[in-house]
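Sorry, explain these tokens?

___
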Amino acid sequence: MELRQSLMPPSLDEEQVARLADLVEEIEDCINQGKNPESAIASFNTEVGRTYAKYEFCEIWGYMDLDEFVRMALRTARASTIADISYDELLELMTRVCQRKGTESECAYWFAILEANLPIESLSDLMYYLDEYLEQESRQRELSPQKILDLALVSQKKPAIAR
């Protein structure tokens, strides 16, 4: 299914991405050298429009490319509630996230759209910690995107699982 433009990850200014990636590298260097990175983190947070804590910058290189981390930060900050989103669109977003049909930042953006538009407190708990979420042993280890969506749509607001 093709998604309408408002559900697609926003395009980004690549100069801003490069500048912010340099800033993330500066933050990591401060952390690794025992220096205070707070002013650099505040600058990053102001520019991306989200609040990241110091620990979120530790060893990004170990799990994600710096440019992709910046793209994820910029894109997820722009995710919002879509008043007229349809079930089919939600299902397509869920399918793309579950099947990793996109870059990390694209999937993170779609996940953020799902979180903003579903009545569930912690979508990630439902997707990745099913037994704990259901508070019972589940026979299924992996749910289809449609089943996850259907459970999320009927979910009562539940607090995130404490780990």
Notes: The CA atoms of residues 42 and 51 lie 8 Å apart. The first helix runs from residue 14 to 32. The radius of gyration is 17 Å.
